[in-house]
Amino acid sequence: MADSSSKKPMRPPFPVEDISLDLIDLDLRNSRFPRDAQSQTDAFELMLNTAGDDCLDMLRDLTRSGRMNSSDTPIVVARDGRYVMMEGNRRLTCLRLWAKPALLSQDESLEKQYLSRIERLIEDSAYAPPAVLRVAVAPDEADADVWIERKHTGGAGGAGTVEWGAAMKDRRRARNDPAKASRAMAFVELVSGEYAEEPDVLVALETVRSARYTFIQRFVDRSVVRDMIGLEFSEGKMTFRHGAELSLPIIRQVLTDFAQPKAESGKTWARELDTVDDFREYLNKYSHLLPGMGDAGTKAADDAGQDTPGPAGSTSAGSSGDRGSPTNGEGSGGGSQSRGNGQAEANDPRPPRPTRGREHILRGVVLDKFTPRIQEMVRQTSLLSVQRQNETVSVMLRVILDLTAYQFLMSHGQQNVPKDLDKRIKSSIKIIDPQASDALGTAEATPPLRKAFHDTTPDSIRLAQYAVHDIHSGRTPAEVLTLADRYAPVLVEMNAHMGSTPIQ
């Protein structure tokens, strides 16, 4: 056995100091974020958008106990006279909110979602927020990383250490060497950066990033996917070959699809899309959304020795896209013409083929804050054809509105939920937007929630029941679509502003 006197003594732990909260900054490269933050304000908003409910759980624990977790000391690194929080960013966010909840006013959506709940926690607390925080000061980021990596291997719920998901671990691995970033991580950063003003895209992206990140990895790792969508990947960065604007339709569609728990077939997405042909066939369903379909998508199909399938599964030689887009090639008088021949199409004397009517409702509506049962009802309803099953869709829409409004009101502690659906919906809208009952403005300036509030009457809601209960009802698909379009924004806002009271 080696002489212990020849061995080095153990290195001392990081020194612990009490540092003013005003001197501690959030980590702009936090592994929780889908991308690097650009400022402290951006980091604060990203934290709440990605881990807001966890932050609220922790703030509830802090305000009730009046004590930090003694077994879990935050880790900081000194930088330019200030300190960067390497481990403990959720705690720092919570303490900032405790001391100054008005910080939420920087983002209207976050303010509506969290302000009233945070103010209740502060009002009910017997403790004042701390002005200083006891932290361990690491000599540099590399030393801190060793312990941060070891720590995030197990979770203990929102009030304790939260285990990192695959996306967070991916960002941590690439933190000090961006060239090691995976295609999945690069894709998430690209989408979250380019579409920062597209809230529906970001909601779907966050759902997929947290629940199906490894599937996103498989998706963008496929060369056929990158070729057809137009994704370029180099040195840890991804770009759109055809630009962000032209790529938005297909990106919105795939993220909306993947945010759903299962594919239309009932299979998980990992089983639905397995082989190269599976991925090619899936994207060809949305050929009308693909940027540069005239080259990348057609080439991909030609390489496989087959015509490009249209959205309904037929080949391009015999069908048009869902949105009435021209076919890629079509015979005339027994002859043929080149694919994408715009001049020939312009001179075609025949009238254009009629575009297909809209088939579905609630497509792309993500209700991940509601119960799994409600989520599944929405998914199944979105698969029904309004044109062929309008009565069933009408009744299911009413049931969905009934259940979601009930859960939303209960989550905000409302014990006496109204029996009538129109009153439930109006009460829900009033919680989200207290000014919803104000007079309507111009059509362009009136928010969808306010329009829905004023359009919601006992008679308008009761009409949804007539599809089944009235044998003389002649409810048309257009009426069902109008109702769905009216209340889809309400469902999305209820999901975004769900309360914290447990549902009994």
Q: Could you explain how this protein is built, in words?
A:
This protein is an alpha/beta fold. It is 49% helix and 7% strand. It contains 20 helices and 7 strands. The protein has helices at 40-65, 89-99, 108-124, 141-151, 166-174, 183-194, 199-211, 213-221, 223-229, 244-258, 269-272, 276-284, 293-303, 342-347, 372-383, 390-411, 421-432, 448-455, 458-469, 477-496, and strands at 16-20, 24-25, 75-79, 82-87, 132-138, 231-234, 237-240. The strands form 2 sheets. A 5-stranded mixed beta sheet has the order 1-5-3-4-2. The protein has a two-stranded antiparallel sheet with strand order 6-7. Strand 6 and strand 7 (237-240) form a beta hairpin. Helix 1 (40-65) packs across helix 2 (89-99), helix 16 crosses helix 19 (458-469) and helix 18 (448-455) crosses helix 20 (477-496).
How are the SSEs placed, and which strands pair?
Blueprint (H helix, E strand, L loop, with lengths): L15 E5 L3 E2 L14 H26 L9 E5 L2 E6 L1 H11 L8 H17 L7 E7 L2 H11 L14 H9 L8 H12 L4 H13 L1 H9 L1 H7 L1 E4 L2 E4 L3 H15 L10 H4 L3 H9 L8 H11 L38 H6 L24 H12 L6 H22 L9 H12 L15 H8 L2 H12 L7 H20 L8
Parallel strand pairs: 2-4, 3-5
Antiparallel strand pairs: 1-5, 3-4, 6-7
Helix pairs in contact: 1-2, 1-3, 6-8, 7-10, 9-12, 9-13, 15-16, 16-17, 16-19, 16-20, 17-18, 18-20
Kindly list the characteristics that best describe this protein.
504 residues; alpha/beta; 5-stranded mixed beta sheet; two-stranded antiparallel sheet; 20 helices; 7 strands; globular
